[in-house]
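Internal ticket #5521
Category: modeling
Description: The requester needs a full-assembly model to guide mutagenesis choices. All entity lines are attached below as received. Residue total reported by intake: 119.
Assigned to: D.W.
Attached entities:
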Amino acid sequence: MTYDPSNIFARILRGEIPCKKHYEDEYVLAFHDIYPKAPTHILVIPKGSYTDIVDFGANATAEEIEALYRAVSKIAAEAGLQTAGFRTIANTGLNGGQEVPHFHIHLLGGKKLGPMLAE
Ligand code: AMP
């Protein structure tokens, strides 16, 4: 899939659309989902232009990959998700229900979550 620079997360990264920022470093931005599906629902995205987890794992630099996973750990711990547990989701492509074609990891927590998959 070719990266579409007009996607909403690319626009957030360029500062064209506001977001409720939770964390930022050189490689990563994290912000609150606009339609939260749990009391805590944070999206963690690389600043680089990657369409999905496959593109990211294949083409991102080691620094970008390290930064993303370290940010997920840091955010989960600091947002208090780690103790009670939480869920990470990376929807991918059509069957995965991915709506925004910029790789992102959902961090969901703050309550006991339901079954892993909706029927
Ligand atoms: P996905 O279906 O995995 O692509 O998830 C995309 C997520 O982005 C959904 O949970 C949306 O609620 C969320 N979303 C869409 N637009 C925005 C926005 N402007 N700010 C924050 N989250 C957004």
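Resolution: model delivered.
Comment from assignee: Residues 39 and 110 are 5 Å apart (CA to CA).
Ticket closed.
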